[in-house]
Every structure is written in C-alpha cells, then in structure tokens.
Amino acid sequence: MRLVTIDNQGEPAVAVERESGRHLLSAPAGAGLGDVGDLLRLSPADREQALGAAHPEPAPSDARLLAPLQPRNIVAIGLNYADHIKETGMDAPQRPLVFSKLTSSVVGPSDEIQLDGSLTSQADWEVELAVVIGRTARRLPREQSLDAVFGYTVANDVSARDLQFGDGQWIRGKSLDTFCPLGPAVVTPDEIGDPQHLALRTRVNGALVQDSNTAEMIFPVAELISFCSHSFTLRPGDVILTGTPWGCGAFMDPPRFLAPGDVVETQVEGIGTLRNVVRAA
Ligand code: ZN
Predict the structure, then answer these.
(1) pLDDT by residue (tens digit) across 45-71?
(2) Cα-to-centroid distance, 10 and ligand 1 (Å)
(3) In the predicted model, what is the mean pLDDT of residues 208-225?
(4) The pTM is what?
(5) Cα torsion at 251, 279, 171, 160 (round to 10°)?
(6) How far is the CA of 241 from the centre of ligand 1 (A)?
(7) Cα 173 to averaged position of ligand 1 atoms, centre (Å)
C-alpha cells in the first residue's frame, strides 16, 4: 500500500494510491486525519477501519503532495554506509551514530529548500531511506524489530556542513527550516520487501551525484531499530533516517554545495523521488 498526504483544496488529507488513482481515506467518527501520522496514532482497530474505508471516487490527481507525515521525532543515523565512510576518511563507528533533526525542518516532496546565506554557505544533500515507525517499541530484539515498521519513505537530510562541523555537535546544521524534504509516499513493507536491497540516488540539476544501494549499510534497518529501542522508546509516527551513501558535495574535490536555482532530486527504489528547488531565503 502507498499512502500520501495531499493538499485537498486547502485541507490536508490522506489518500491511498492505486492504479485507479488516489483515493481519500476517511477517519473513524471523531478522529481527524490530516496526515499519515494521524493514522498511526489511531487505535489498531480504528486504523484498520480507516485503511479499509477508501473513498471509491479518485481524489484530484493534480493535488499537491505534502510531507506524508509530521514526524513525532526524527532520529537520524550518521556514517552508516561503507562507501560514504570511505569518502569522509573517518573511522567506521562501532555502534550506530545517533543524532536528531528538529521536526520543524520537514517540508514536502516538491517544496523549496530555502538557503539563508547569512547562516550557511555549505548546504549539502543526503539521500536516505526513512523508516516510519508504526507501533510503540521498547527494547526490541533485532529479530522482532522490523515488526515495528509501518512503512518506508524518502528523506533528503540536507546538511549545513559549516554549522554541522563548526558547532561541535550536529543539531543546528541538520535542522535549518526546510532542510528535511520527506515523501513522496509512505510505502508499506509488503510492497518494499527486503529494505536492504533498494537502490538510492541523488541528481543535482540532472547530474547523478549519489548512486548506491541500501545493501551498503553497516547497521541494517533491523539493527538500527533494535539499537534505538534499547536507548529510548520509539512511538508511532517517529521516523528514522538511516544514513546516506557516498556522493555528498562536501567530500567532492573541489567541494560542491547547493546554490539558489539548483534542483535536487533524491530517489529510493520502490518509493519515489523528492524534487526540491533551492531558493535564497
Ligand atoms: Zn544523514
């Protein structure tokens, strides 16, 4: 199943994408359904009811896509691809390197990335497989941890390298407004299959800059969820960004950073593509 959040004539709404088009989902009585996150916070019975109650008439096909959900928490993982660690010249972490992005950085799959030149001159791209948590998870063993996944989406973990490395810790450089494009859809695990065999790519102005596969992850999705859930409780609507492969602009020779007018396309196989134009804030 592919779920999207759309701008339905000024009101956010959740729709399921089928070959016949997008069909709006209705909330059970008394519940609002403004995004996929609202769906995840319903009781299991109400969630099932909402998912089974798609409107038979297609929703407008030209409706703008919004971020599929406003995450509760964004947990992010650094240095999780062998090919990326090689280009950074850093040592591979002995355990997952966990950081966070503020949720205020989230924008939709076709929204602008806004660059404030007074804050950063080193904005960089990072295509990532994003895991959407569907149930409360605490101290999950690795063998059970994929049961906590509701679905997968695409994130661009846009990073202001000058702030990320200049601040001594990462949260500000990772959290500028518009620095987390998310979407275009949340795709359920039955359609994705093995999350460790997905191609992921970034194009900037049409030129391929990142081209890898989730098979390159050092700590696979199941291990990341287990590790995180032993440290803090994961809840429905939390999102884990699982790290980025080689090809970031900061590690090119010479380095290449985003500038106003650039078009960044980040793509994960089986999910879709984010297309974000960079604008001066
Ligand atoms: Zn990242």
Answers:
(1) 999 999 988 888 888 889 999 999 999
(2) 32
(3) 98
(4) 0.97
(5) 20
(6) 7
(7) 11
